[in-house]
């Protein structure tokens, strides 16, 4: 069944048959331009200086085009000669390139004849009576006799149309396989004999057609696709109507080279290239895509379950936005079978052996807004996500579980087809991965190049000394408070009833003895931070619920009422990207907070250790942290500035979902308060520059820390490296910016094959991080805008250099 008409396809003009006839006649006359004749017996040789013929203007060439950098194989092709890069617009032997030494000749009997290096004819064109050949300035190659055209390349297009060219009924364009492989590809634009214009996926190598993913459905049949010489593309119907195909702005062919190509990713794109010396505005001298159909092939291509979809089996498709290429990606625990031919799909890095299958050896990694709409073999209703996970983990054949609407679950088996990722998908894909194989190939973190001046290192050290001095005076100040509060009778006698609770906030008040028993005398320490230590515990009355108990031996309050009010405010926060507060203890001198236990610990253990997270999982963690901060800043009842965002304060639950912790220890803002003045807080390397300037502190300090941490998550490298060579650059943000500025963003993820396969997203995330770490807080985006940029809803412009701020500290 054909897809519904794209919004790009609108009746733009109704013409009479007479006007249409005049249009086609004009195109025929325009092709009779001046050109230099190629006479019978003229020969071209592959790999030699006589390898091509030029059009009179020199804009087009026809002859032998090398298919690789080594010039070992050649196509007989037509290409733009005066653009960079050159662009092939037609080829004769795309499925059988020839070697150096092969020849192309206009024979004495008037044919174009291609012979391989062994002298065997492998291709020929034209009738046996052409007297001359010519390469026209339109990009058309013709064979002529007595001034008439006997054969022309425009009648036999491959994957490209040029201005002045038409695609008649029964004709088609066939994409090439990949950007580097010119052989027949996986997509076709066909002007069907029934009068429809359709884009269809094909089976390789048979060419079998699947259902169209884009088409023009009309009440009247069409008879040709016209790319007129003014640069507009129309589908002409038999009743004289012209339907605009791409809806692109019309660009003058006097000012721009133009072509429209069915690209290897299945998208029909219109390209322009500014001509030298012409008034073409700000257009870059490259092939600029200005229009495409369909609008989103990832979303539109379904194929009713047959075939692999836009990308290969076991991969998923994500549109890059605007006119950019489609991204084909492997899910966690999978890698491309052939990275140069991604259409072949992905393969599991850990195929389970069902006869020895142990569910405990596997985990499920969530990817939001992802789905493989086919390949399911079992469907559950009225289940929660934990049940969905368990059903898949217990089943050896289950490769992916799809969870939707908080109640439905599909188990899917390999191969997975028609995978896609996008905000239009309201489902979560749970990808089964092996725990033992779930590691990255990244080496221990460290800089790759040193391109920043050493003065930056000195400035960082000065900032650290300032922060350290501030900490020293804070310790003295806190000690005085300890003597004042806990030296008083009131400080020694304060006691709360242990079994009471804040029922309206679902917060329980614990006795100290109760928590001492739950932690077995605070035996198992999970971690230690600025405010105290965290211990693992078990609440037997809560059906053996694991908990994390934080002893706040360094957090002091002026009175218990303020402490209770702060706990009450924390208890009102409910978000999937925040660690939930279960209860507290405020008994005598003991102040403890009880949190839900996060089995996978802090994010830092998965960034800088031996086990590193898959790129898409790191992406989801960045999303999670951003959404958690957005909630703290703008959505919870009492806005909160965290003031210490860093990997240690981001915990990972059983499903590796990011959960922000220690936000309850931050400075709370009243509803009518947007700024607060306080001493320097935070951790070296993550502290915003305004802390050093006695400026009013706003939510933007969290945005700065988030930007630093975002770079760490992208690069799997600490912001400050303290154990590296003197000649190497220790500051991640400067090294990262220099790499990005010099067009070497791939160095940031150089050993991460999954990130390298998705460089467009990597670069977008890096730009967002640089906006977050700007010196001027007003230049930093809010967390709401950060979230919108991450989701692709807001365009990310080129950020300024973030480095100048250190020179002012």
Automatic annotation (TrEMBL):
<dbReference type="InterPro" id="IPR051343">
    <property type="entry name" value="G-type_lectin_kinases/EP1-like"/>
</dbReference>
<feature type="domain" description="Bulb-type lectin">
    <location>
        <begin position="35"/>
        <end position="156"/>
    </location>
</feature>
<keyword id="KW-0723">Serine/threonine-protein kinase</keyword>
<dbReference type="GO" id="GO:0005524">
    <property type="term" value="F:ATP binding"/>
</dbReference>
<keyword id="KW-0812">Transmembrane</keyword>
<dbReference type="GO" id="GO:0016020">
    <property type="term" value="C:membrane"/>
</dbReference>
<feature type="domain" description="Protein kinase">
    <location>
        <begin position="520"/>
        <end position="806"/>
    </location>
</feature>
<dbReference type="GO" id="GO:0004672">
    <property type="term" value="F:protein kinase activity"/>
</dbReference>
<keyword id="KW-0732">Signal</keyword>
<dbReference type="InterPro" id="IPR001480">
    <property type="entry name" value="Bulb-type_lectin_dom"/>
</dbReference>
<dbReference type="Pfam" id="PF00069">
    <property type="entry name" value="Pkinase"/>
</dbReference>
<keyword id="KW-0808">Transferase</keyword>
<dbReference type="InterPro" id="IPR000719">
    <property type="entry name" value="Prot_kinase_dom"/>
</dbReference>
<keyword id="KW-0547">Nucleotide-binding</keyword>
<feature type="transmembrane region" description="Helical">
    <location>
        <begin position="459"/>
        <end position="483"/>
    </location>
</feature>
<dbReference type="GO" id="GO:0030246">
    <property type="term" value="F:carbohydrate binding"/>
</dbReference>
<dbReference type="InterPro" id="IPR017441">
    <property type="entry name" value="Protein_kinase_ATP_BS"/>
</dbReference>
<dbReference type="InterPro" id="IPR024171">
    <property type="entry name" value="SRK-like_kinase"/>
</dbReference>
<dbReference type="Pfam" id="PF01453">
    <property type="entry name" value="B_lectin"/>
</dbReference>
<keyword id="KW-0067">ATP-binding</keyword>
<protein>
    <recommendedName>
        <fullName>Receptor-like serine/threonine-protein kinase</fullName>
        <ecNumber>2.7.11.1</ecNumber>
    </recommendedName>
</protein>
<feature type="binding site">
    <location>
        <position position="551"/>
    </location>
    <ligand>
        <name>ATP</name>
    </ligand>
</feature>
<keyword id="KW-1133">Transmembrane helix</keyword>
<comment type="similarity">
    <text>Belongs to the protein kinase superfamily. Ser/Thr protein kinase family.</text>
</comment>
<keyword id="KW-0675">Receptor</keyword>
<keyword id="KW-0325">Glycoprotein</keyword>
<dbReference type="GO" id="GO:0051707">
    <property type="term" value="P:response to other organism"/>
</dbReference>
<dbReference type="InterPro" id="IPR011009">
    <property type="entry name" value="Kinase-like_dom_sf"/>
</dbReference>
<keyword id="KW-0418">Kinase</keyword>
<keyword id="KW-0245">EGF-like domain</keyword>
<keyword id="KW-1015">Disulfide bond</keyword>
<dbReference type="InterPro" id="IPR036426">
    <property type="entry name" value="Bulb-type_lectin_dom_sf"/>
</dbReference>
<keyword id="KW-0430">Lectin</keyword>
<dbReference type="InterPro" id="IPR008271">
    <property type="entry name" value="Ser/Thr_kinase_AS"/>
</dbReference>
<dbReference type="GO" id="GO:0004674">
    <property type="term" value="F:protein serine/threonine kinase activity"/>
</dbReference>
<feature type="signal peptide">
    <location>
        <begin position="1"/>
        <end position="34"/>
    </location>
</feature>
<keyword id="KW-0472">Membrane</keyword>
